[in-house]
What we know:
Elements: H1 9-13, E1 28-33, E2 36-40, E3 58-61, E4 64-69, E5 72-75, E6 85-88
Amino acid sequence: MKQNEALTREWVFGFITAPFIGEEFIMYAVLETGSKQYRVTAGDTLEIERLEIEAGKPVTFDRILMVNNEGKVTVGAPTVASATVVADVVEHIRGEKKLTFK
């Protein structure tokens, strides 16, 4: 970009506001849990850090950073007020047990 060239909205915010060609508008949210951010839609299955909730029980995430509802984007500062994501805990997974010797 040249020095005298005017900045457009796309350059200032670092993203393109138009949707991708051929992509439909869907509802999704960006939530934060375990110091990580996840983009979730209805029906997604995520592997996140262990929660203190029994398997099969619902969990409510209230740290929602962004919501896209049919193309209408709501960005929180830092979170979106009154937005929650409800999910079910499918199972708790343990990693491979490792033995180390010194």
